UniProtKB/TrEMBL annotation, chain A:
UniProt KW keywords: Cell membrane, Membrane, Transmembrane, Transmembrane helix, Transport
A Pfam family: BPD_transp_1
Transmembrane segments: 35-53, 58-77, 83-100, 112-133, 177-195, 207-229, 235-257, 298-320, 332-353
One GO term of the biological process aspect: transmembrane transport
Location in the cell: Cell membrane
Entry keyword Nucleotide-binding: no
Name used for this protein in its record: ABC transporter permease
InterPro entries documented for this protein: MetI-like, MetI-like_sf
From TrEMBL, chains B, E:
Family to which the UniProt record says this protein belongs: Belongs to the ABC transporter superfamily.
Coiled-coil stretches noted in the UniProt entry, renumbered to this chain: none
Keyword annotations: ATP-binding, Nucleotide-binding, Transport
InterPro entries the record matches: AAA+_ATPase, ABC_transporter-like_ATP-bd, ABC_transporter-like_CS, ABC_transporter_ATP-bind, P-loop_NTPase
Molecular function in Gene Ontology: ATP binding; ATP hydrolysis activity
Source organism of the structure: Devosia aurantiaca
SUPFAM superfamilies: P-loop containing nucleoside triphosphate hydrolases
Taxonomic lineage from the root: Bacteria, Pseudomonadati, Pseudomonadota, Alphaproteobacteria, Hyphomicrobiales
Span of domain ABC transporter: 9-242
Pfam families named among the record's database cross-references: ABC_tran (PF00005)
UniProt-recorded name of the protein: ABC transporter ATP-binding protein
UniProtKB/TrEMBL annotation, chain C:
Recorded superkingdom: Bacteria
Record protein name field: ABC transporter permease
Domain ABC transmembrane type-1: 84-274
SUPFAM superfamilies: MetI-like
InterPro entries: MetI-like (IPR000515), MetI-like_sf (IPR035906)
Location in or out of the cell: Cell membrane
Regions crossing the membrane: 7-25, 89-114, 126-148, 210-233, 253-274
Membrane topology note: Multi-pass membrane protein
Family membership: Belongs to the binding-protein-dependent transport system permease family.
GO BP of this protein: transmembrane transport
Native source species: Devosia aurantiaca
Gene3D superfamilies: MetI-like
Organism lineage string: Bacteria, Pseudomonadati, Pseudomonadota, Alphaproteobacteria, Hyphomicrobiales
Keywords: Cell membrane, Membrane, Transmembrane, Transmembrane helix, Transport
Length: 369, 265, 288, 303, 265
């Protein structure tokens, strides 16, 4: 095993083990204060034996978890974390990195199956970030008014599910979904209309590009002025945000069919409609999905911004802006978490549909022609 | 359709020039050629001599810039709208989102064939090109040769009397090519179609054709039209007969004449 | 010429619709003003003129916006705090710095992703998730947080620009650095080229078109980032601050003028990247 | 010189004329102070800025400051130049609101971001539900202008006497076509625009001394501003980095602010403080009676 | 390098299997072959029989899964690191952002040749493939044949003793191909290189080679190794001699044997 470490892995192993050794030394004066931490330091130091003995990467994973556990368990209720505990953070992180590094290598070498384990790596990375966040905010006594710890956010999240759900319904279900659907469908239809007339295309595309550069933040107060305080103005902002990406992508996509594919239609004396339905729209599929994916993240952001400029007293943007005003920063982060989860899920759903619909595209079927 | 004349394609003083930034490209100049019903005409010539362009002009995919061109006695445009021909492109040009059978059915859908008729024709043409059993596969799941055969099936499915084939067997190995050549000959003999066939291979041209059109580039001209003296019935080993070799030698000479090596490649 | 005519036609159509819309949208308020001033039976043409000349219209007419842009740029010293050129410059400097940060970060991440299996697997989902975080919500807290560690002024704005603009660059560059076909990589393998050589001689030049396409998106987004940041950082001015003060004072004409300047700035920035692309293409012998 | 940073609650305008004039006229220099004045805005919470160390002194409303105190930002009021509230709710005649009893079923525009406490305290006192239940009012998070009234999106909107009310006057509204609810006149005012610092800094005599000099110079600034309203308005316009401040509007604002500020006495009135704290506790905006949330040490020393 | 043996490539019981989702693909199985120094070996066989795979294995671009393979008596990996061979891919694979001369100089840059030496080698190899005068052009300004010649120049520039060529002339028309064939023969005669050459064309294989390896697919096996009895000196018209035709017939038979049409395509 020790032979198979890459340069990067070797450095990580040295950092992890070295920090363990140093931490062990630094813990001796206060021995017994944090037994879990002591164990972690000791085993970390032991891991240096990997230079001469085989050391499974699963052990690295276990050590990363042990380190995170020890750190969180020994976080002080008040004041700063003891200096040598920061070594545990570095060591634990190095173990996590080393673990994913070696796990990825094992998957690549075919020693582990792709499915399942492939998902573990991004998850570990995310968890590592959260642990670092937790330890740094609490260990360095960062004011919760500036950046609350993930545990505080989670607690608030659990305690406020009612509010969060109501806000989610107002913003996502009432504003984002209708706005997204209208914006995307309108962009698609206008693209098809524009595509038929080279004159319109030549006229609209430069202006479309100009409009898509408009900072939507500026549109939001105008839309609130035009469409009122409720979800309609938010949906309007979402429509404005999603329309142009869809327009530009679809126009490009409708040109994606190759000359020879079009000539083929021509040899059948196919009508415009037939060519559109049987060739150009399917060929535009990947482009249309590209816009749908871009729009899935834009839409939520647009609705939230618009809520900064006037809303009924519900909605994710409302909660975030008043939350900052009231210094309920943990609630603000809970809302941000909802936004990130909803946005990622939305994106993921679109990406899944894309895999199903454009199964034939090289980027989906894995590149082999 | 087969009105007062049996000429399927008739070109006289045909010219076709592509406008280009730095001087126009003359792809065809003063081409005079008559193709009669039931003929199998091969076009051969160095790269860039205008073979594809000529076929595309017949198919109304390019507009001639001078001279006249008629297809079935009409303008190429009207012939195209009459669905007078099937075209096999140099690349298979199958739609990747359709299965093989749906690709073959594509022209039938567009031309409004009923679904039972469609299924029957797809079955028959796929069998003809030896692709039975691959109906439900997608193009990218097939080898290049199979794709090419599917594209031939697609062009055959709606039974046009004129077949335009642009290097259909270019990507295939010799054995497969031999096989398809004889299949094509059988099909032609059976159906009395008129076939225009572009190839780079001299033996292929000689083996298949009743008439071989040799072209030369810059500008694209017809330098020789060789009428084959081979019988219609052609076993594969006809290719070792002196008659065959003699025609092949004539084609090669014609080709070489139009081929100043340095400038073409 | 045949490119200008269509654009001009559409532009004229938009302006015509815009004028009509500003009559329609400003009419109710104008009617009330006239009622209150006991002006009955205002002739239609005069009424239309009134709707195009309100102080705080719901939809300012095109010439009001154009006039405001003129007054706030050409008619003023560029150093004046009322000049949109002055505010545009402030936003521009944050945009450019953020764009430089964002492009560098994007390229670095892309390089890590294509060269390291673990990075490849771990980063992408989180990079996508990062873009679903509403930056407008985080920006105020970020500005305060950076202030707490001593960063004020240009840098917080640039960091928010970076947060938005690195995304298209990573996505594009991962695609671009992976765009060489297997055969081109195999070629280098037959020469026993080092990864470093493969990067500079193949991957990097092959990724150029992707880099520029991403940078065009990135620089427009950078500008949006700078404006968002200015909403939470009103000290020092900038186009975002103008949008904000326009909004809190109900100065619609001022909002629209700032918006158009911002969009114009974005168009110019995109054009500049396009120009750079053109020059690089020429040096790289890309077909015209 | 002692360097101090002052975080304003809003964009640069005559609401803060005293501080801007003091800076411009060199009153702070005279007190050997180097003051940086940071403008605020709708997305800037001064309480958060000071918690992050971005400011030494903030201008804040007491309700928000007390609420922040409970959230873990130990703010202490050191001076209260504003004696009265400038907050009003106005309802145009079309809304058919003439008294509080007309509110149920109406839509009211309220500013949030820490500005909402006075409204909720008032409604709490009147017993009008704000949670959307029967017999209550519908609350909107109002934008910071009078558009919601002009557009008819709300029946009543929040205004400050010295700012949005002026916009309403410009737009042709006035006492004859408006019903006006003035928080001060109703006795519902919660102390606005006080000066707050972090509690721990008050144990440092040098800091207290700097605050004292700051308050003294600021009050001198206020006095000067109220005495010379035209010049003060011009100073505000000159000091606004955004170029958005209009001279006429700032002149109006100086005039109105002068009705709220007492330039001769920066000290906090304990009776008003007690009333504010009671209102906040009644409405559970804060849970416990604050301890040491104000000090007279600074204002005592200014005399 | 030319140690105890003159064998440049030596494969014994060589097997290579690609793992695939639904059952592995056996690309090569039990291949035994020795290629001696100075030989010109052609590989011929239907599509998918493993010709490319075998060349790639020699070049250390694929790892054999069983048996042994040595190149110059070493492992393929070490041979690659010694830069023992030049590889000409089926497609030209020129870098579009480099001029022709820079493309040819690419391996020289990577291998660290000095710039004067580089310029001299580029000049010489470009002259060899008849591309002098096109040094400053970009690939897209050249025809397909010229591009292919540039890629050959690139493989020749660093004078490896072993040349691996995968259908280098596949995309060219017959006349150009004839020309390049005889140029290649001249080069080989002059330099005494060892050449492994993949082709689909029987006449080409017979014309060029000292040894013809016939392969058959599923799994890829060597079915016949034909040692040419033609002299080293080969004018183009040798192709009409009975000896030539006889070898060609033998190759064709070998091919057909391994070629059950239905399953291959
Ligand atoms: N769309 C076009 N625009 C400009 N020039 C063109 C166009 N199409 C073809 N040409 C030019 O016309 C000439 C004839 O081209 P064509 O494709 O007909 O040749 P070809 O004989 O089919 O060659 P190949 O054997 O390589 O397929 C060439 O010089 C080509 O560069
Ligand atoms: N990377 C790969 N993964 C899986 N299978 C592969 C891979 N490369 C080649 N194969 C398979 O291995 C077999 C041999 O392929 P190879 O490319 O060597 O054939 P070839 O003789 O060169 O064919 P052609 O004449 O078409 O170039 C084929 O069945 C092919 O599908
Ligand atoms: C726990 C953990 N730590 C580090 C990495 C690797 N990684 C993630 S982001 C980054 C910087 C640029 O790539 C690196 C090296 C990982 N995957 N998981
Ligand atoms: Mg052609
Ligand atoms: Mg091959």
């Amino acid at each position: 095993m020790s032979r198979t470490l890459s340069m990067l892995q070797l450095y990580l192993a040295l950092i992890a083990g070295g920090c363990g050794l140093l931490g062990l030394a630094a813990s001796l004066p206060t021995i017994g204060a944090a037994p879990l931490m002591l164990i972690f330091f000791a085993v970390s130091a032991l891991s240096l034996l990997r230079l001469v003995l085989p050391w499974s990467f699963w052990l690295d994973g276990v050590l990363a978890v042990l380190g995170a556990w020890a750190l969180i368990a020994s976080l002080p209720a008040e004041g700063l974390m003891p200096l040598h505990h920061w070594l545990a953070l570095i060591a634990s992180w190095a173990f996590a990195w080393l673990f994913v590094e070696r796990l990825a290598a094992a998957i690549r070498a075919g020693k582990l199956p792709e499915t399942g384990t492939g998902l573990v790596i991004p998850l570990i990375f995310g968890l590592a970030l959260i642990v670092i966040w937790e330890v740094v905010t609490r260990g360095a006594s960062v004011s919760p008014v500036l950046l609350p710890a993930p545990s505080a956010i989670a607690t608030r999240f659990a305690a406020s599910t009612g509010i969060l759900w109501a806000d989610f319904v107002q913003t996502f279900i009432k504003s984002v979904i209708p706005g997204y659907v209208i914006g995307c469908v309108a962009g698609l239809l206008v693209a098809i209309a524009v595509d038929r007339s080279p004159f319109l295309k030549a006229g609209i595309m430069p202006i479309g590009n100009f409009m898509s550069a408009l900072p939507i933040i500026g549109i939001a107060p105008i839309m609130v002025m035009w469409f009122g305080f409720d979800w309609q103005s938010k949906a309007a902002v979402v429509v404005a945000m999603t329309f142009f990406p869809m327009l530009v992508n679809t126009v490009a996509g409708l040109n994606a069919a190759s000359t020879i594919e079009r000539d083929l239609m021509s040899t059948y004396a196919a009508s415009y409609r037939q060519t559109l339905m049987k060739l150009r729209l399917p060929a535009a599929g990947p482009f249309i999905f590209n816009a749908l994916k871009i729009n899935s993240t834009l839409a939520l952001i647009g609705a939230i911004v618009a809520e900064f400029f006037g809303t009924p007293v519900v909605g994710m943007g409302f909660r975030i802006s008043t939350g900052v005003g009231r210094l309920a920063i943990d609630l603000v982060w809970a809302e941000i978490a909802v936004a990130a989860i909803a946005g990622s899920a939305f994106y993921g759903v679109i990406a899944l549909i894309e895999r199903g619909v454009t199964f034939w595209h090289p980027s989906v079927r894995g590149g082999r022609t | 359709m087969d009105g007062r004349t049996t000429a399927v394609v008739e070109a006289s003083s045909l010219g076709l020039t592509f406008p280009a930034g730095d001087g126009d490209i003359v792809a065809l100049s003063d081409v005079n050629l008559t193709i009669d019903k039931g003929e199998f005409v091969s076009f051969i010539g160095p790269s860039g001599c205008g073979k594809t362009t000529f076929l595309r002009a017949i198919a109304d995919l390019e507009k001639p810039t001078s001279g006249t061109l008629t297809v079935n006695g009409q303008t190429p445009e009207n012939a195209r709208k009459d669905r007078a021909y099937g075209y096999v492109f140099q690349a298979a040009a199958l739609y990747p989102w359709r299965t093989i059978e749906d690709n073959v059915a594509l022209p039938l859908e567009i031309m409004g064939y009923g679904s039972a008729d469609r299924a029957e024709r797809v079955r028959r043409t796929l069998a003809l090109v030896n692709l039975s059993g691959f109906e439900k596969k997608y193009p990218w799941q097939l080898s290049g040769g199979m794709q090419q055969r599917a594209s031939i099936a697609r062009a055959l499915s709606f039974d046009a009397d004129l077949l335009l084939m642009d290097e259909p067997f270019g990507a295939l190995d010799e054995i497969v090519r031999d096989h398809l050549n004889s299949e094509l000959l059988k099909l032609w003999a059976r159906t009395e179609k008129t076939i225009c066939f572009v190839t780079h291979s001299i033996p292929e041209a000689v083996y298949l054709s009743t008439k071989i059109v040799v072209m030369s580039p810059r500008p694209g001209r017809v330098t020789d039209v060789i009428v084959s003296t081979l019988p219609r019935e052609r076993p594969l080993d006809i290719r070792e007969t002196p008659e065959f070799l003699e025609i092949a030698a004539r084609v090669r000479d014609g080709l070489r004449a139009g081929h100043s090596y340095e400038e073409v490649v | 010429m045949n490119r200008i005519l269509p654009v001009l036609t559409i532009l004229l159509a938009i302006i015509a619709i815009w004028y009509a819309a500003s009559v329609w949208m400003n009419a109710p308020w104008q009617t009330r003003l006239n009622e209150r001033a006991d002006l009955a039976n205002v002739p239609f043409t005069e009424f239309v003129a009134q709707t195009w000349a309100q102080d705080k219209p719901v939809l300012p007419s095109p010439h009001q916006v154009a006039g405001e842009i003129w007054n706030a740029t050409i008619a003023l010293e560029p150093t004046s705090k009322r000049s949109l050129a002055y505010h545009g410059w402030i936003t521009l400097s944050a945009t450019l710095l953020g764009f430089a940060f964002g492009t560098s970060l994007g390229v670095l991440l892309a390089v890590a992703i294509i060269h390291n299996d673990a990075s490849d697997r771990s980063l992408m989902p989180w990079i996508i998730a990062s873009q679903t975080v509403p930056i407008v919500a985080v920006a105020p807290m970020l500005v305060v947080g950076l202030n707490a560690v001593g960063l004020t002024g240009l840098v917080p704005k640039a960091l928010i620009s970076m947060y938005l603009s690195f995304f298209p660059v990573v996505v594009g560059m991962v695609k671009g650095l992976r765009s060489p076909e297997g055969i081109q990589l195999d070629l280098l393998r037959t020469y026993d080229a080092t990864p470093w050589q493969a990067f500079w001689k193949l991957r990097w030049p092959a990724a150029m078109p992707f880099l520029f396409a991403s940078m065009k998106v990135g620089i427009a987004i950078s500008l949006i980032g700078a404006i968002v940041a200015e909403l939470s950082n009103t000290a020092g001015g900038g186009l975002g601050v103008r949008l904000l003060t326009g909004s809190v004072n109900g100065q619609t004409v001022q909002i629209w003028a700032a918006l158009f300047i911002a969009a114009g700035l974005a168009a110019v920035l995109v054009a500049v990247v396009g120009r750079a692309e053109h020059m690089v293409n020429r040096r790289m012998g890309v077909r015209a | 010189q002692d360097a101090l940073t002052l975080q304003l609650k809003w964009v640069t305008q005559a609401q803060f004329a005293g501080y801007l004039v003091a800076e411009s006229k060199g009153f702070y220099d005279e007190e050997n102070l180097d003051i940086t004045i940071l403008p605020g805005g709708p997305n800037i919470a001064p309480e958060q800025v000071i918690a992050g160390g971005g400011a030494d002194i903030i201008v804040a409303w007491m309700a928000a400051a007390m609420s922040a105190r409970e959230a873990g930002v130990p703010l202490v009021n050191i001076a209260q130049p504003f004696k009265r509230s400038g907050l009003m709710m106005i309802c145009p005649t079309e809304s058919e609101v003439t008294e509080v009893a007309d509110f149920p079923g109406k839509t009211l525009g309220v500013w949030f971001f820490g500005n909402e406490y006075p409204f909720f305290a008032w409604m709490n006192k009147e017993g009008i539900p704000t949670d959307g239940s029967e017999g209550g009012v519908t609350v909107l998070q109002q934008s910071f202008d009078i558009q919601p009234m002009i557009q008819g999106q709300a029946d009543c909107i929040s205004v400050m006497t010295y700012n949005e009310y002026g916009q309403a006057l410009d737009a042709g509204y006035g006492p004859d076509n408006l019903t006006i609810f003035n928080y001060t006149e109703m006795g519902n005012d919660l102390l606005e625009d006080g000066l707050y610092v972090m509690e721990d800094t008050l144990s440092d005599p040098a800091k207290v001394d700097a605050y004292t000099r700051f308050v003294r110079a600021s009050m001198k600034g206020w006095q000067y501003a109220l005495d010379n309203p035209d010049e003060a308005a011009q100073i505000v316009v000159d000091m606004d980095d955004t170029g958005a401040a209009e001279l006429a509007h700032q002149r109006y604002m100086v005039e109105e602010v002068s009705k709220l500020v007492d330039p001769s006495d920066p000290a906090l009135d304990e009776a008003t403080y007690d009333r504010t704290v009671k209102a906040l506790m009644d409405q559970a905006i804060i849970k416990a009676e604050p301890e040491g949330a104000f000090t007279t040490a600074v204002t005592d020393a200014t005399n």
